[in-house]
Amino acid sequence: MDRRSFLRAGAFAVTTAAGGTFLIGCAPTTRNSASNATGDPNLPEVAFVTPFQHIINYIDVYVAVQEGFFEQEGLRVKPIGGTGTASSVSQVTAGQGMFGKAASVITAPLILDTGAEIITVGQNDQVSQYSVASDPAKPLNNPSDWQGKTIGVISKGGSTELLLDAMSVTAGLDPANVRKVVTGADVGSLEFLKRGEVDGFITFLGSETALRQRGVELNYLNTDKFAKVPGDSYFVKKSDAQSKGEEITGYLRACRKAYEFTEDKANLDKVLSAMSAFNTVEVSDKELARLKIEAQAKLCKPANGKYLSIDMPAWESALELMRKSGIVKDKNRPLSDIVTSEFVDKV
């Protein structure tokens, strides 16, 4: 779907969420004790709605559940596997979850152009998860290299297509001169390149890690090189930001502890166990899972070493770029309408 269709779909989900039923999957917590299987029942339960199922990208939450970091903050967190970024946004907006996760390229236009009452409170990805992969013999190292060519994106109208367009705009080029086709998010995207159907395709951290593990030689150009736009970040309803500050700060503190725990290679088995409780497939190949976990921790660690810190200069320049590229139509509302460091600064 295109961006407008995506936004309409999100709005429809919000409208129906209050009275409808979501088909969502959630996994049990992974505490070893049966009495703690769902955490302390006396603690308030809040839900985190993932953008997509249960994968290593959200490892901080699974580790925080298993290691009791949320309970230390007086919270009982239920991770809910979403069916797409739209579901994460719509369920949080409708009160079906307190925390969601999405990139700024999605949340900014939703907030500024459609009036979504959400705000980002913690930045997970400090570096883009996405890269343009190409044949090393015909490398794509600049947006000018793919003008008039075909590039594979993960989904039509989603983050990767918007980022690809923004890269062209940054280079002073017309995104319309690039043909985009959907090649998906897994290693199967490589087949499109092998068959000559695309000149390059966008990978995300998981598929890039898997391709590298298989020894596939590709040229990778991270999207940050031309369009530095903050990636997946935690968001909440603005009303919750006003009334549930302690819970938000506690959630972020627990997730930061989980990232620090995950970063320690001595904890690998426990981290794998935390992921396995929600999705055994993600850790069926232990070596690949290890590589993904290490890459995820590295990608999420900011220069100051404090996980979930918000890079405000990056958000400011990203908003300017999104306006310039047409991703965001609004020209006047302030950055503070889409992101705040109020809570993570208290961690």
Automatic annotation (TrEMBL):
<dbReference type="InterPro" id="IPR015168">
    <property type="entry name" value="SsuA/THI5"/>
</dbReference>
<dbReference type="Pfam" id="PF09084">
    <property type="entry name" value="NMT1"/>
</dbReference>
<feature type="domain" description="SsuA/THI5-like">
    <location>
        <begin position="57"/>
        <end position="262"/>
    </location>
</feature>
<keyword id="KW-0808">Transferase</keyword>
<comment type="pathway">
    <text>Cofactor biosynthesis; thiamine diphosphate biosynthesis.</text>
</comment>
<keyword id="KW-0663">Pyridoxal phosphate</keyword>
<comment type="similarity">
    <text>Belongs to the NMT1/THI5 family.</text>
</comment>
<dbReference type="InterPro" id="IPR027939">
    <property type="entry name" value="NMT1/THI5"/>
</dbReference>
<comment type="function">
    <text>Responsible for the formation of the pyrimidine heterocycle in the thiamine biosynthesis pathway. Catalyzes the formation of hydroxymethylpyrimidine phosphate (HMP-P) from histidine and pyridoxal phosphate (PLP). The protein uses PLP and the active site histidine to form HMP-P, generating an inactive enzyme. The enzyme can only undergo a single turnover, which suggests it is a suicide enzyme.</text>
</comment>
<keyword id="KW-0479">Metal-binding</keyword>
<keyword id="KW-0784">Thiamine biosynthesis</keyword>
<comment type="subunit">
    <text>Homodimer.</text>
</comment>
<dbReference type="GO" id="GO:0009228">
    <property type="term" value="P:thiamine biosynthetic process"/>
</dbReference>
<keyword id="KW-0408">Iron</keyword>
<protein>
    <recommendedName>
        <fullName>Thiamine pyrimidine synthase</fullName>
    </recommendedName>
</protein>
<dbReference type="GO" id="GO:0016740">
    <property type="term" value="F:transferase activity"/>
</dbReference>
<dbReference type="GO" id="GO:0046872">
    <property type="term" value="F:metal ion binding"/>
</dbReference>
